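Attaching the record inline, Q. Sequence:
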Amino acid sequence: MATQEAAHEWGAAVDVNVPSLSRIYDRLLGGGHNFASDRAVAAAITGLAPGYDVFVRESRGFVRRAVLHMLTAGIEQFLDLGAGLGGVRHMHELAQAERPRARVVYVDRDPVAVASLELIIHADDSSTGVIKADLRHVDEVLDHAVTTRLVDLARPVGVVAGSVLHCLSNAEEVAATLAGYHDRLAPGSLLAASHADGIVLGLETAAAVEDYLARAGITLVHRSRREFADLLGPWQPHPDGVAPIGLWRPDGLTLPMRECLWGNAVLAGRRPEPAERA
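Structure, as predicted:
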């Protein structure tokens, strides 16, 4: 498991005693980019909500399925907002295995996540980049030198916001952020997003998880399916709408585990501009 020395090797300036949700998720996914403080919180969360690791893994599964759908739809450039530590297979590896010309820009504000992502990108990889930025700063993300080098904003972009919007407490700010990306991206762009929902988890358990994380300095807000849908603003959900993560275009016919219903997911698009009348 990671240590303070490892953080220095990654080039990340980080206090290992302060937990991070992206590293807690990394622990729940079985990764090694986490510290004792992260592991303690992960253990506490799974104690409060046994099976929370299943929910986190299924959330990553949604991202994989959504990216494959975007590729099928012809999208070859991606923004991964709140990218975190990726899990078993990183987005650029998945996308470029299907479309070698695919381009990916990772965005995160966690220095360990940024440093680890930079390490897994090959030095000669001209199609993948990492930005240390807050996803709410839309112009900073889209006007960043890495983004302008890799992403053509005149063409459709696949925006991925997997398990990150629930880290933002102000619903109006989240909605404004998503609207900001919508307004600046080209028609035909797609948004894949997932969000924790406390209804199936149980409102008391959800509140206990939120309270524990808050004491650790971490924000997580459970929102219902309707509250999540309300964040989408001008983004137009595909016909399957907002659905429980485990039921969003599953790989097989097996019924999902209950933990796979602890969050919701959506694929939404930016519609083409209406044609001007002559």
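The mean pLDDT is 89. The two ends are 64 Å apart (CA to CA).

More tomorrow.
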